[in-house]
UniProtKB/TrEMBL annotation:
One of the Pfam families matching this protein, by short name: YgbB
Family annotation (Gene3D superfamilies): 2-C-methyl-D-erythritol 2,4-cyclodiphosphate synthase (3.30.1330.50), Spore Coat Polysaccharide Biosynthesis Protein SpsA, Chain A (3.90.550.10)
Binding site for a divalent metal cation: 236, 238, 270
2-C-methyl-D-erythritol 2,4-cyclodiphosphate synthase as annotated region, ranges: 230-385
The protein, known as: Bifunctional enzyme IspD/IspF
Length: 385
């Protein structure tokens, strides 16, 4: 049976051990804010019904910048945290209470590489215990030291390194935080003080916490190594019909025919829109803008391309290059190719030197060779921002 589950990200700290002019959760990791990556990691867990972030009162503008373009409706407005971590978590839990969750995952903003499998293991453990968290066994030798001098060896048997997200039955952890006073190492410590039995599940080495400059450098390398690069292809055809011009790649060309279509029949822009949707694996232009819908009758194809470019950004990608080939015997495309590149670049919000528009004929073969219409092929490359 489905149970309502919430996610809570603690991002109110100052990150003083890392140093720097801004709190570490807003530092870029391979070009994207650490906090945004942590939010996206939680949102990637389908079992979560809502996610809330607890921020420092001074960080509202930084937070807005970090989540710009992230339109997942499950992400709730942020709340302000307290002076200590425990106070911040309590503020987040109080804000979540109206959502009536049964379970909650509490995650560190500085752990941007959370594998979904770890979070799911924590949630599964809550079937048998009111609290659970991922952990890794300590494998290195441990020594207690006085300054730089080793003093006493510490047995590592039964010692574990705690990670997040730490999961709880919601009512139990909210009551525990309301009863807790002072600071706490983490939320498991708060749960323990309240007498809540706690399960351990296997953690993951990639789910490390960014604390030092070395951690940040490691995170940057890991993010870049895992960069998502996608290519999509699009193909479209429109027949000639009555008219005195055609719209191709956003440029009107005077001609003795028009193109027949429900919208303005811009075959080049349609092919490019399909290529972008193909790279996102989100269907095609007909699914997004069905010709059966009267609102698209006669619509400028710029509307379609602009909406899909916005979707590309929402998914965390940028368009790095696109190539459109128009296939026809006439009209002549060459004199207009530069203007087409400029117009597509404007709509796609990239430089014109990343846009290619070219033309070819089909050597008088097929419907294009017979002058019955125009075909277009497009390719688009997306890279995770």
């Amino acid at each position: 049976m489905s149970r309502r589950t919430a996610g809570l990200i603690v991002a109110a700290g100052r990150g003083e051990r890392l140093g720097g002019a801004i709190p570490k959760q807003y530092l870029p990791v391979a070009g994207r804010a650490m906090l945004r990556r942590s939010i996206e990691a939680l949102l990637a867990i389908g079992e979560l019904d809502c996610v809330i972030v607890v921020i420092h009162p001074d960080d509202a503008p930084r937070y807005a910048d970090a989540v710009e373009g992230l339109s997942d409706p499950r992400l709730l407005p942020p709340v302000t945290g307290g002076a200590e971590r425990a106070a911040s978590v309590r503020a987040g839990l109080e804000a979540l209470e109206p959502q009536a969750p049964e379970r909650v995952l509490i995650h560190d903003a500085a752990r941007p590489f959370l594998p979904a499998s770890v979070a799911l293991s924590v949630l599964a453990a809550l079937d048998e215990a009111p609290a659970a968290f991922p952990a890794l066994p300590v494998v290195d030798a441990l020594w207690r030291a006085d300054a730089n001098h080793a003093e006493v060896a510490v047995p590592r048997d039964a010692l574990w390194r705690a990670q997040t997200p730490q999961g709880f039955r919601f009512d139990a952890i909210l009551a525990a935080h309301r009863a807790h006073t002072g600071a706490a190492l983490d939320d498991v410590a708060v749960a323990h003080a309240a007498g809540l039995a706690t399960r351990l599940v296997p953690g993951d080495e990639t789910n490390f916490k960014i604390t030092t400059p070395g951690d940040l450098a490691r995170a940057d390398r890991l993010a870049r190594a895992a960069m998502d690069i996608r290519t999509g292809n699009g193909f479209d055809v429109h027949a000639f019909g009555p008219g005195d011009g055609v719209m191709l790649c956003g440029v009107r060309i005077a001609f003795d025919h028009g193109l027949v279509g429900h919208s303005d029949a811009d075959v080049g822009m349609h092919a490019l829109t399909d290529a972008l949707l193909g790279a996102l694996a989100e269907g095609d232009i007909g699914r997004w803008f069905p010709p059966s819908d009267p609102q698209w009758k006669g619509a400028a194809s710029e509307i379609f391309l602009d909406a899909v470019i916005a979707r590309v950004a929402e998914r965390g990608f940028i368009l790095t290059h696109c190539d459109v080939t128009l296939i026809c015997e006439a009209p002549k495309i060459g004199p207009h190719a530069a203007a087409m590149r400029t117009e597509l670049a404007r709509i796609c919000r990239i430089d014109a030197d990343r846009v290619s528009v070219k033309a070819t004929t089909s050597e008088r073969l097929g419907f294009t060779g017979r002058g019955e219409g125009i075909a277009a092929i497009a390719t688009a490359t997306l890279v995770q921002a």
